[in-house]
Amino acid sequence: MTRIVFSGGRVFTGRTTEPGDVVVEGDRIVDVGIGLDGDTVVDATGHTVLPGLFDCHVHFMLSGSDLVRSLNTPFSLRFYEAIGNMRATLRCGITTVRDALGADLGVAEAVRRGLVPGPRMQIAINMVSQTGGHNDDWMQCGAHISPPLHPGLPDTVADGPEELRKVVRTLVRHGADIIKIASSGGVLSPRSNPRHAHFRDEEIAMIVQEARAAGIAVMSHAMSGDGILTAVRNGVRSIEHGVFLTDSGVEAMLENGTWLVPTLMAPRMVLDQAAAGVAISDVILEKAKSVVAQHFQSFQKAYRAGVKIAMGTDSGVGAHGDNLTELTLMAEYGMSPAEAIHATTRSAAELMGLEDELGELAPGKLADLVLVEGDAEQHVKAGTLKQAIRAVYQNGVSVL
Predict the structure, then answer these.
(1) 12/131 same-domain check
(2) According to DSSP H, which parts of 9-123 are helical?
(3) pLDDT number for residue 88
(4) Are residues 141 and 219 in the same domain?
(5) CA separation for the pair 365, 377 (Å, rounded)
(6) What domain range includes position 310?
(7) Global pTM?
(8) Contact (CB, 8 A) for 152 and 125
(9) Are residues 285 and 182 in the same domain?
(10) What is the predicted pLDDT for the residue at 71?
(11) What molecular functions are annotated in GO for this chain (predicted)?
């Protein structure tokens, strides 16, 4: 096979960047070092070579928070929009994601089979919610307003352990790689309160039990302090958002090895759309405003305590392709730029159970690489990382 050497750049080692070359054969990295040669040379002089980046919380089937637009979007058009959303994500260096609600098995398979370009993905398909919870789309007028259920997207609103057992098994049947639940209310749901916990211990315990029986993990949308605690003590793998994280929640996460996926961008995306003229209800807008400052404080609390953190954005709530803003926010609120990159590479790979294949530039790993002009850490700090990306490789093939 042809040996491609990325020569003369600086290589991100996981904690810092050092001068080095990376050699790729086929879809694998075969060597990392100084003065390496190959059949084809990619001149990386003046560039930082990063591993392929991760986003652990996206929604490819969503394209913003404009309810009126959503109601006037033909059913099948969303699948075509998802192609553009995946392309935009890939072009900013993100080669692997967790789709946290929306993408069904067909969307994932289209990427896996090479029919459309996009990040490799683990899919949750739909979010498991209690009646009146964060994924119950019932409106006060009596209408349901979410995209319609279809053969690839089953109903996941359920109550009580036995109903939830059935829902989890149904999601596994439909191809879920991970189970997503809502153990608190949220911002965009019409009737839920992000400060209220949802599901009781026996309900989440059942969900986790059934997921583990299928060999997969559980991620939990959890904003309220009690909702976080209930999810953590019953064995979820990651807390998404973690807005009202308490000291006891931090202690529980440390004790159980639970991950945090902060999605610091999420409420800001809602507020930015409202400022741009998107019609967002006063109730949702007030919820978004109420969580921003607390969100950052909780992130800082978790980071300083040593909670494991992986990058996620909630893209789909807002625009796809702006994902790398999340690294700048993580750096602004306490992480070093190198730590933010680590959260977006090695840490994210570990969260998703892909650390044996991805997340770092090392022999034997899949050849996902991102070439960044200049110093990637400085770009994270300045908020210019996306603009500095010059090439993206996935499985050894250029996709940008």
Answers:
(1) no
(2) 67-71, 77-91, 105-112
(3) 98
(4) yes
(5) 23
(6) 53-322
(7) 0.96
(8) yes
(9) yes
(10) 82
(11) hydrolase activity, acting on carbon-nitrogen (but not peptide) bonds
Integer angstrom CA distances of residue 75 from 62, 102, 103, 148, 189: 12, 13, 13, 8, 20
**pLDDT at residue 142 in the model:** 72
Supply the DSSP symbol for 140: T
Beta bridge partners of 42: 6
User: Residue 148 belongs to a domain with what CATH number?
Assistant: 3.20.20.140
State the DSSP H helix or E strand holding residue 201, giving kind and residue range, or none if neither: helix 201-213
- Strands 120-123 and 127-128 come out as unpaired
Query: Strands across the sheet with 127-128, in order?
Result: 127-128, 179-182, 218-222, 238-241, 259-261, 308-309
Counting as low any pLDDT under 70, the low residues of the chain are 147
Give the pLDDT confidence score for residue 295 in this predicted structure.
Answer: 95
Distance CA 237, CA 367 (A): 27
Number of H helices and number of E strands within the chain? 14, 17
**What residue spans of 19-160 are helical by DSSP H?**
67-71, 77-91, 105-112
For residue 47, the SS3 value is: strand
Q: Which are the contacts of 371, defined by CB distance < 8 A and separation ≥ 6?
A: 6, 9, 42, 44, 47, 48, 49, 50, 389, 390, 391, 392
4 strand-pairing partners: 24, 40
Cα 320 to the center of its chain, rounded Å: 12
* Matching residue, tokens 């093939």: 397
Residues 192 and 288 in one domain: yes
Residue type, 59: H
